[in-house]
Every structure is written in structure tokens, then in C-alpha cells.
Amino acid sequence: AGVKYVGCFKDNRYRDLPVVYTANYKTTKAYCFRYCRAKGYRYFGLQNGNACTCGNTVGRYGKAKSKDCARSTCKGDKRSKCGGPWRNSVFTTGLKPKSFKTPGMSHIGCFVDGRRRDLPTLGGKGSMTVGRCYGLCKKKGFRFFGVQIGKQCWCGNHYGRYGRRDKRECRYQCRGDKTTYCGGSWRNDVYATGVVVASKGKQCWCGNHYGRYGRRDKRECRYQCRGDKTTYCGGSWRNDVYATGLEEHASGVTLLGCFRDNSKRDLPLVHGAGHRTTKAYCLKYCKSRGYRYFGLQAGSACTCGNKYGSFGRVNAKQCRTRCRGDKRRTCGGSWRNSVYSTGIGSKPVRLPGLKHLGCYLDKSSRDLRKLVLSGSVTVPKCYKACKARKYRFFGVQNGYQCWCGNHYGRYRIRSNLECRVQCRGDKSTYCGGAWRNNVYATGVVVASKAAGVKYVGCFKDNRYRDLPVVYTANYKTTKAYCFRYCRAKGYRYFGLQNGNACTCGNTVGRYGKAKSKDCARSTCKGDKRSKCGGPWRNSVFTTGLKPKSFKTPGMSHIGCFVDGRRRDLPTLGGKGSMTVGRCYGLCKKKGFRFFGVQIGKQCWCGNHYGRYGRRDKRECRYQCRGDKTTYCGGSWRNDVYATGVVVASKGKQCWCGNHYGRYGRRDKRECRYQCRGDKTTYCGGSWRNDVYATGLEEHASGVTLLGCFRDNSKRDLPLVHGAGHRTTKAYCLKYCKSRGYRYFGLQAGSACTCGNKYGSFGRVNAKQCRTRCRGDKRRTCGGSWRNSVYSTGIGSKPVRLPGLKHLGCYLDKSSRDLRKLVLSGSVTVPKCYKACKARKYRFFGVQNGYQCWCGNHYGRYRIRSNLECRVQCRGDKSTYCGGAWRNNVYATGVVVASKAAGVKYVGCFKDNRYRDLPVVYTANYKTTKAYCFRYCRAKGYRYFGLQNGNACTCGNTVGRYGKAKSKDCARSTCKGDKRSKCGGPWRNSVFTTGLKPKSFKRKQCWCGNHYGRYGRRDKRECRYQCRGDKTTYCGGSWRNDVYATGVVVASKAPGMSHIGCFVDGRRRDLPTVGGKGSITVGRCYGLCKKKGFRFFGVQIGKQCWCGNHYGRYGRRDKRECRYQCRGDKTTYCGGSWRNDVYATGLEEHASGVTLLGCFRDNSKRDLPLVHGAGHRTTKAYCLKYCKSRGYRYFGLQAGSACTCGNKYGSFGRVNAKQCRTRCRGDKRRTCGGSWRNSVYSTGIGSKPVRLPGLKHLGCYLDKSSRDLRKLVLSGSVTVPKCYKACKARKYRFFGVQNGYQCWCGNHYGRYRIRSNLECRVQCRGDKSTYCGGAGRSEVRRLLQGQSLQGFAGSLHCQLQDDKGLLLPLLSSKGYRYFGLQNGNACTCGNTVGRYGKAKSKDCARST
Q1: Which in 382, 529, 682, 1307 has the greatest CB count within 10 A?
Q2: Which residues touch 704 (CB under 8 Å, ≥6 apart)?
Q3: Phi, psi of 1342, deg, nearest 5
Q4: Where does the record place the WSC domain (predicted)?
């Protein structure tokens, strides 16, 4: 009854329904209904399919969509939906809160409580409800009550001392009514009782402001009014505040907007009005101080000023903070001013030319120099005072000072916010600040236009200065100031640069004009309204000054020249107040051709100048003392002019030639002597030729320009002649042709180059060969390291010689590369070719221009660059014939025969440091096929080889290291013939020499029945040629090449075999002495075999030892067993403490032994018993050892160990090849390998054990609190005995431990399973089986398949499955079904299959 669906609601970690129970698989609507109803809650919810939620209120976080509560399936009923993630499907439980009458009660909220209680009186405890607490506190006359921690009721007239908290912290259920909440831990859920406390209600307070001490809850103002008890009249120290409806008067006030503020203050005066803050109060405050504007900020402050908006306007929404003086109104915001006008208007100031320039810093050495007023200052007063005194600028400072001046800004500009001190004479305006000038322009213009002052233009400047005088005027920089400065110094031009500099000079424009806008980039520091040039840009004006005029016929300016102590112009014309015109007159009067003005005051005269060189005209810019508008040289610098005087001379010489310019060019003014035959023209000067061309060209027939070619220090054309001023094409042609060269070149304008070849370093663009010829400036002669190459017309003589081929330039030394000198003198290439070819030489070389050398090999001393073989042949200068110790090598075409009868190519063979062909000769530059053929054939070898280009190899056999690829023998060029290949690195190109070995009947040199006493050596040590047949080998020095004759020595020793030479010791290796004296191998064999021993050894030539084992002290080389037998000196009988060991042929008896295979072993041991048998290790010995200990199997390992056990193969079988280590006791047999057992059966069979229901379960750990609880046997235990003893006692399991104990029980496995390798102690009663180990039980099962009911009684309702795991039957609990899960759990119930069937194999995965 009453259960209804409420809806789908949102939830979060703070919980809408506070009680959450994760019901998991029990989660259904019915279960959660019962759960929450039982706890007394009004609502229950289903969340996320697995949780029930309970509470008395719902919907705090809002409703959700219905589909959000249909996402999760109920874990307890898959057919239904149970909410969703953070979504509650909410229903009513049908419970209603207890009803009670509470007139006047109202809920206030959740409040913190403390040790000093917020509500001080305890109303009651126990089974508490809200209604009960209401009744208790109202009865006691309290205004408020609170329920806490579900069971406490507190009463009082005040609350909230410790602050308010979220209502989620007050959700403890009431003990008396669980459908409602009763606070929390130290949290009061506070209500008002509705009680009104009677009081006098007699005081009335009036004012224009309120709220100084803060606002409180209206419930604290519930005292009844004395005059009308139906209304409230405040409380104790509490005003119930009302507005009268009267408004404060604020005429002329206009809201200007909401403006941003910061620590620098938009309105500079700030007054913290606090609870008095209203619009009317702030208006009154700011207006009384003469400000034009006021602002309200942050609800509690008034701001005043004459300007506003410095930091920008913002949205009006940012100015909504309530006024502390009137909560109905807004008073700006945090750092936001609500700005209004006060109604005060600034006094009209109409003053011509007045302009505000900004706020500027001032210091003790004043920016504006003149103080004219102090006291009640205003801007108009200061303006009039400074303008009357003709000042261009004025500034008001600190509210009471007036300063005047023509310049400002020396100490830099500041923010206008720093100039906000009110003027004493007019508080509605600002008059600067402390050490801050509010600067204005008066409009006064200082005249800068004198007669002739004009704007010239904008000109470029650089560090060498267009106008040489530069004065950094800084804050004084104006057009008027620079005009006065430069005019006073007598300059014709002045300029303004970069806003802070004046420049002066007499000439302008050296570096060119600039754009007008480039001179409008910098503001004048002395007048911010004007522009003063730009960076490296001069705004140039004329000063109005003109240079003094004088007549100077014939005068011309030459340039600026250096002077020295020995004067360049030797005669002093005058000193003092010098001008160019005056110096011209002084020197012309004296008849001099040139004059120079120096250092502004000196005049020098002469007929020659320039001895010390010319300089830039910028070094001649001293002002003339007599006329400052012109320049008169510099310090040790003459500004040189020509006077126009012509010096008469004989003018009588005429010189002719094909070249000129050897001594250099001079200025044409030095060639001004009048011609004697025609005085109207010039005919040179003193030692000066005025040079003319006749028009004739030099003859250069057959010359062809081949191009412009690169050259370097190695020279493309080898002969270089520095022709200097004679360098012309015709001169170089003549020079090179006379020397027989085919080509000539012109280089760098001053050199001839000759050669027979060109272009070694490459061609370049013709533009790189444009240097003027020193011998003819009208023509070009190559360039720097560039040859203009021409042919001389000489052709090389035709050389057509069969087989001739140029091979290169090769170094030669005193032990010649080509051995035979055949010609010397007038040598040519054809002559040398014919001479060497006639002598059958394969190669020839021409050297140093006059020598001819012949040979069959070359290149001994390495190749060089062709540039080193450029000496002309004496017999033909148009070709090269080598160089000094350099051969130009050619092939003659002669082929030296290398094919004799039987010479054939065998192939390419591998070689190494042990040599396939043993004789190696490093032939170097002689290495050719023909040379190596002759070398090896002469030595009688059947094969010869060519290796690595520089070696011959010889031998009688080939191919020991195998064949190689043919290309491997084509990698190295023959040093003796660069046209052929001679093998490769460690590769032989092998040929036959044509020699055959001689046939012979074998005969003996050294004979014997034994050999090898001194050891074997490599066959390479037996390669001396036989004297009788050099094609075969006959041993070496102290080396026998041993052969067998085929003679067989008869022996009567069946089964005997030689084993080797072994060390003996005091404890004899072969322990039994067979005989001594005149011993032979045959006699010792008979003695030991007769005694039944498997081995015998002969020692020191006379002893015979017998035994079944040997090798205890190790093997030695057979050369240590070379003592002759006393009984037969043709055989050896051991040595000193050395046994020459033989087998007698007898075998050890090992019946019933079967090889089972080769098996892997490791440190855990496949066969647990290991015995290091050492030199006794044989199959028979190990069989005897393991069989005697009752083991079923034995193994042989590593040649020296026996292993025993009852089981094998734990680590797997391996290939039989891994068990091939020789037995130390019998080297003829194999005994396993490293960690490999050759396993055999001992012949002992395990006793048959047929016991019903017996099953081996494994090896389990045991401890002092036993795994199997009952010890039934101890001593001579076997598995069958233990089985019978435990079965008779009705136990399900038994275990044998440590070889002699039998334990029984119904459970096992408490201490976990171990490896079977840990349960390998032999049973005392049957050594062929294992009975556990130390602290290890080998557990077996007795019974299988008995009925559940029949076995339940004896096991006390416990059941064991067929794998030995226990599970509770629990029939005593009355369940219909039980289950086994995950190998370790029993499950019980009355129904099954809720989640469906699984595959059978899924229930067979856990043991």
C-alpha cells in the first residue's frame, strides 16, 4: 500500500538518497523496498543494477530522462531494470512521517555546533522527533530549537555562532521517526518555534546611514512593539531598519558611466566612507574640495578628480555592488568607479597659441629655467606671465609654481597621472605635481628667418659626415637654435638630425638626397611640435651667408693631398687670414703652376704635387680663416688647385716604341709644356711623355684564340715569362714561338705563358680574362690566374707508330726504373720507340728532354702527375720528354712470349699465410705472367701463380684451400704490366709450367717398423724438392716424409688393440704385475689375458702390468712411450712411469642390461644417486654399483660418473649423438655426455602392485602439524604395506615419507604440492620404489567411485571428488544442491541455473 514510482533522478557522490547499500546479486525492486522500509525511510531507489538507495527527501540534483534509468539490468532479476550510472529509479515505501501540530514553526537550516553550545539548553534526549523537540522548547518559551545526531533536542533564543553548513550534513534519521532527519554529528537542524519574546519595544532611532555593525537574521528582531504588540520592534541591540522615503538631494549630478580603476587611480583622491557611502555623501565630499567629478567604488569608497577614464570604460554590470550607506543603491564595484559630475565646471580658458604638451620630470637644475610666479597659480595666469616675457613654453608645478623657458624635456616625460595636484588658484584644474611640470606652449614663435635662409632638402648622412660639424643640442634642438649656432660659426648650411643634433658645413649632398618623409621621423627635442630630420638624415637649410667673391681665371680644383716635412708644394706663399682666392693670387704672381691651402691659414706654392699621395676630400675641411664659408685643407693636408700658369719649355723631343707605361701613369696636368712647334698644344713635361697610338697593329699570323683557362701554382702552361709593360699578344706569340711551343697564353695583363698542352685545370667564362694588357691598354690579357690561350701555329710532328701507347709519368731514381739507356742527346719519342723496339723491350721512357731508357718493367717508384713531365724534347720542342728524374713511359707493343709446351691456365685458387704454393717471390715492378713463368720453371716447379699484382708463387701441388671465383683474380693490376691482371689479395691465378714429374720405382732411404717418436708436423715442412725429380717433394730439414712399404708383420694376439700412453703412479693405474724382465708386447698380452684382465700395459721396457681399469693419472703423448722392449727391440714398451696400454679383448659381463636411450639431466638429477667413478667408469662397473643398491636403472654421465635411480626421463630424451663422451675406464666405449645420461636397466624388476582403487596423487610438503594426521607404520615400509594398513582403518589417503614412515588421513595438500624429484628416497622394504623424502609425503588415494550416501556418514557429511578436493556436503543445512567451484570452494542452494548452463569443459579446468 502506498508504493508508487516517483521518477528518475540524478545523483552524485554527495548522494540524493543518503543511504546506499550495494546489494549486488540480491538487487531487485522488492528487495530494496523491504530494505528501505525496514529502516523507516519514505523513499527507496535502484541504482546501476547493483545498489539500493534510501532517504526521506528526493530530487536535490534534479530529474533525469526516463531512458537513463533503463540502462542497467538488476543483478537479482535480469528481466528488470534498476536505474543507471548515477541515476536513481525512485519509489515511495508507503511510510508517512508522523503528524503533529506545530503552529508558527519554520525551518531555518543546518548549523555547526561546538562544546560551548550554539543553542545552550538541552530540551531532551532519546526517541526524538522534530515535533517532540518543537513541543519541548516552545513549552520552555524559547524562540529556536535544533535537533542533533538523531536523538538530541537543543533550545535557545540565538543561533549561528559557529556558522551555517550544507543541509546534506544534517541527514541523521530521527530515532522517533525515521522518515525525517534530525541533524547530524555536531550539526543542529534549526527551526523557529514561533514564540515572540515580549519586551518594552520603546526606542526609535533616526539617521541617513545604517549598517555599520552588520546585518543579522530577521528572527533576531522579534521584540513586540510596546505601542502595538501585534508587530515587531527590533530586539536587544538590534535595529529593525526602515526607509522614510526621503531622498538625499544631489542636483546637477550626472552619471557618466562605469570606469576601470587600479592602484594608480583614475580619480586621484580616495576617501573610505564605509557605512556612510551614498551618492549624496560622495557628491558633498568631492564638491566641497572643488573637484569636477566624483566616483563610488566597491560600495564603501568615494573617489574625486578633475579627469576620468584613463584606464577605460567597462560594462555597467560591473558597477553593481550595494552601497554600505544605502543597500537599495549600487556604488561601483571592485576596482570599478561609478563616475558622476559634481556640477562644478572648469573656468573657460581661451588663450591663443596655448597647447598642453604633457607632464615632465623636473630636477634641481631646472628643465624650464625661469620661475615667474608662486602661490595662487592658475594655468591662464602662468600663460600670460610667460608669454609677456617672450618665452615659448611654461609649466605649472606642485599646484603653486609657474616656470618659463624656451626648451623642455631634459629629464624625460612622465605619465599624466603624476601631474594631478590641484591648482591653488583653480581647484578644478591640475597644476603638475611634486617635481613634475605640466608643460604648455605659449604660441610664441622665435624667428629663424634671416635674409637668404631657405630649405635645401633632406640629405643622407653617415659616419664620415656630409656636414662636418655636429653639435648634440638635445633638449635645445630647434630650427631657430641650429640656425643661430651654425651662422655664428660662419657656415653656409645648417641641418637638423635625429631630433637632437645640429649639423653645420659649407657643402652639402655628398651622399645624395633622401626622401622627404625620412626627415619627418624624429621630433625636435626642443620643440615637440616640429620635426628635426631623422636617423642619419639631415633636414638642410641655408644660413644666408655667401662666400667671398674673387676672380680666379684658369684656377681649377685638383684634390686633397698629404703633406710632409719635406713639403709637397715647397714654397710658402703666405699665412694668417687665408682664403682660396688670396692664395691663388700669391702663387700665380710668383709663376707657380699649383697652390695648396693647409690647416685653414697656410698657402703653399709649387710646380709639382702628390709626392705623399692623395686622400679623401673629407680630410680637407678646415674652415678658411679669411672666409669661413669655404674650406682650406686640413692638418698636414693640402687642398690643391691649379693656377692655370703654363710653363714655357723647349717641347722638342719625340719618342717612339711598341710599348709604354713602364714607369706608371701621371695626372694630365703634369704634361702641360707647350710644344715648340705649336704653342697652342701641350707636348708632355719634364720626364713626362704625352703618349699617342700610331694606329699600327702588331702582326700575329696563324694565331687562334682557344679560350680562357684556369691556372694555378702548378701551371697549365709551364713556361712563365713576366713581360711587364711589354705584355701584348704579339710579344707573347713571338716569345713562345721562338722557343718552339705550340701554345701561348696571356695572364694578369703582365705575363706570357708557354706550353705544348693546355686546359689541365679547366675552361672558365671569357669574362674572367678581361685584364688590360700593360703593353697595350686597349687590349685584354687574361686575368688573375686566368690564361687567354692562343696557338702559336707550330703543329706537332705526326707520330704513327704501331703498338705505341702512353702509360704516364713515373718517378725514377739512381737504381733505374727502366734499366737500359739506349739514346742520349737530340731525343724524340719516335726515335726512342724505334731504338727500344729493335732491342725487343716492351716499354721505353723519355727523361729530362734528352734521355731514352728501355725495359720490360716500370713503375717501381710510383706514378706522378703529368704536370711533372713537361720538359721539351731536344729533338722536337713541340712535345714533352719527361722531366728531371721523371720518365714519360710508353709501351712499344712488343709481347714477350709466355706460352711453352704444356703451359695452361689452371684456375683462381684461395691462399692464406700457410701458402698453397709454398715458394713466394715478391717481384714487384717485374711482376708479369712471362716473368713468373720463367722464374718457377727455372726452379723446376710444376705450377706458378700470380698474386696481388706484385708476387710470383711456385709449387708442385695446388688447391689445398679450394677454388675462388674468377673475378677475385681480376682485382689486382700487374705491377710489371699495367694492362694485365695478376690475381688478387690472397688469390692465386695459377698456370702450369709444362714440367712433368719423373717416374721412378719406389726405394727406401730410412727404414723402420716404428715412426713418430718425435711427433708429427705439418706437411708444409716436407717440401724440399727431390734432387732426382724436382717436381716432387722429398721431406725437409730433419723432417721425414714417411711412407708405408706394404710389408705386414704377423701377430698372434687375437682381440688385442693398442689404446695409448698413460701416466702411472705409486698406487698403480693397472694394479696387478703380470711379469718382469725380457718383456715383449705379445708376452705381456698372454700373461694378463690368462689371468682374465681386460687391459695390460708395458712399462719402462721390462715391466708388464694388468688390470680392468686404466687412465687414473691421465693420458700422455705417445712419444713418451718409446723405450725399446727388452724382449724385442723393434717395438716400444712404454717409458719411465708410462704405461703403453693395450686391450686384451676380454669384455666385462653385463647380463640383462638394456640401453634405454640418452636423456637430459640437470642439477635436480634425473637419476638421484650420483657416484663419481673416475677412471673406473665403465658400463660393467656402474651396473654392479647401482644393482648392489637395489636400483632399477643406472646411467653413465660425462665419461666419469655413475647415476642410479628407479625412474628416468624427467627432463626429456635427446639425440644419441649427445652421449658420445669416452669412458675414463675404457676409452673404446662411450659413457654419456655433459649433463647427459646413457641410461640402462639393471635387470631388477619392480614387484607387482595390484591394489584396487590405488592412484598416485603426487609429492606433498609435510610439517610438524601433519598433512596426513595418523602414523600407522614405521620401519621396513613399502607402498603395498602402507596401502593395506590405511585401508583397514578406513582412510581415504595414505602417504609414504622418508623411506620408512606410513601416514593415513582423509585430507591432504595443506602445505602445497612439490616436484616428484623431491620424493626419491628408496623404500626400506623395497628399494626399487620410492617412498617420499625428508619432510615430503608421496600421497596415494585408496577409494574411487563409492556412493555419496554410503560414504557421508563416516566422513561426517564431507565429500571428496575424484581429484581429491574436499567440499562440504552440508545436508545438515537442508540445501537441495551443492557445487564445486574454481578448485577451492563449495557452493550450496535450493535453486540452480539462474545464469544459464556452461560447457562441460569449463568445469574441467580447475583441479
Answers
A1: 382
A2: 790, 791
A3: -95, -45
A4: 2-94, 104-194, 252-343, 353-443, 452-544, 554-644, 702-793, 803-893, 902-994, 1055-1145, 1152-1243, 1253-1343
